[in-house]
Design a protein that fits this description.
Largest sheet: 6 strands, antiparallel
Strand content: 25-35%
Strand order of the largest sheet: 3-5-4-1-2-6
Number of helices: 1
Shape: globular
Structural class: mainly beta
Helix content: 10-25%
Number of strands: 6
Distance between the termini: 18 Å
Order of helices and strands: EEEHEEE
Radius of gyration: 11 Å
Oligomer: single chain
Length: 79
């Protein structure tokens, strides 16, 4: 599974990462077929819990957290 990670407040692409069922970003946000990185980042920021990072997984699942990098592997992907 790959996901896009961004900094909350000002979405910034930070790469594609491999994630397992043991999530690197632990706090689940909404699922939506119309989910975007911008919508997920806005959701995480509006929770007022200090989340700094947001990710969209599988094109529809939003996750938030204070930090990232506990479990991921980065991929260099060229389009």
């Amino acid at each position: 599974m790959q996901y896009f990670l961004c900094v909350v407040g000002k979405p910034k692409y930070m790469g594609c990462y491999k994630d397992m069922s043991n999530r690197d970003l632990r706090f689940r946000g909404p699922n939506s077929n119309s989910m975007t990185v911008e919508k997920c980042a806005e959701y995480c920021e509006n929770q007022n819990k200090g989340y700094k990072y947001a990710s969209v997984q599988a094109g529809y699942s939003c996750f938030c957290d204070y930090k990232y990098g506990r479990l991921y592997t980065i991929f260099n992907i060229y389009f």
